[in-house]
Amino acid sequence: MRVVLAPMEGVIDAPMRRLLTGIGGYDRCVTEFIRVTDVLLPEKVFLRLCPELETGGVTEHGVPVYTQLLGSDPQALAVNAKRAVALGSLGVDLNFGCPAKTVNKSMGGSILLRDPAQVGAIVKAVRDAVDPSVPVTAKIRLGYDNHDALPEIVGLIRQAGATELAIHARTKFDGYKPPAWWSSVKPVMREGVDNTYINGEIWNVADARLARDQSGCEHIMLGRSALAAPDLAWRIRKAEQGVEVPLMPWLDISYLVEAQFLRSDCHSPRHVGNRTKQWLAYLKRTYPEVQDLFARLRALHDVSAIVEGFAEHRRELLD
Asked: Which CATH architecture describes the domain 3-240?
């Protein structure tokens, strides 16, 4: 089994990839999407979203990072994929899953699932553009507004030469509303082929087992759940080895959140603490204690005040 850290625009950035891969359990990460129109993007765009390109294409903890591209022009995506690889990307991922209205309006993400032939053409153009040794992966949903075209979409992606495929088990119109329809993936699985990842609503170790069983996928991709439980990939990995690892205590997580705040979320005066509060909103799902910390920090935008908020929260926990 392999576990991949999903791309999440504006949430799972390079500092978050660094932190989560430091906890462990991940085989690979995927960047936030790089939007491609009809031009070859400058190097600085790739380096901004994937600074790991300057360190061998891996996180500080040695986990490979693939560069994700989003767009609808096969040739433009192909030339930008070549640039990403030339800059050191260890793989190229193609986004056919983003459900955001602004992205879909510009013919990117999940709207392309309405045209399976276009999806196949994009994968083929990118596959042909880069060296055969470079992985080309794709992320899709079950479909745009229903599941009917899933077999065709998956078939064309495989035919085009994709190395791996991640399937978020919801349609574009499902958004992120539960449930995820894991069992809908099983009909497109091929016996003896283990290059497909299941994604969506995998919040704990039991979900990981059930998602794999119902979908027939050997591997998983974690997104929002990686933020809600930062050690989830590690616990899933250990469970596969027959070892049940307890959830990391909230006190330990709180120190990680504060360190992340000081490292990457306090340098822009207009946005101090924004990413931290966003992360706390995810952590609430796993840790009830977060509610108190979130309430303390919610209205704060000063570094020292936020640091004191963490300290007060921990003092109360320990009293």
From this structure: Alpha-Beta Barrel (3.20)
